[in-house]
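Lab notebook: predicted structure, single chain.

Context: the supervisor wants predicted structures on file for every construct in the current expression panel, including those that have not yet been purified. This is the next one on the list. No modifications to the sequence; it matches the entry in the shared construct table.
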Amino acid sequence: MRHALRYAGNFEKNFMKQTTDSTSFEGSDGQQHAYAPWPDGVNGLRISFMEKAGKKFVVVRIADDTSDVVLHNEMVLVPGEHFGFGVHLQGTPTVVEDNIAIMKLLEDATKKNVGHSDELLQMRARFKAAAAKH
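Prediction complete. Output recorded below exactly as produced.
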């Protein structure tokens, strides 16, 4: 499966404004910038992340073809563990084909967001079923 991680702006400026309808973020220049489009062929999870002070990247939103969840509690991304080794986050969407790493990301986000656990667990079940077909 192909998953993608997309930059959604600076955490301190944008996290509290994030909704499932969000399509842009406020940049360091004070202007609104549209999210980059998801890459073609992404058939797994679509994960939005923000940058916190100190170059920490955090997951703020997770979507599949059925659900779109804005997390109440951001989750720090751990390179290798959450999006595979040799993968680097950047301003353009990053495609990840490591189902094990993405599953770990989803499970860790679920643990940090018990208020969304039902929806995230349903997303996990759909993900596991789709991954079993590939």
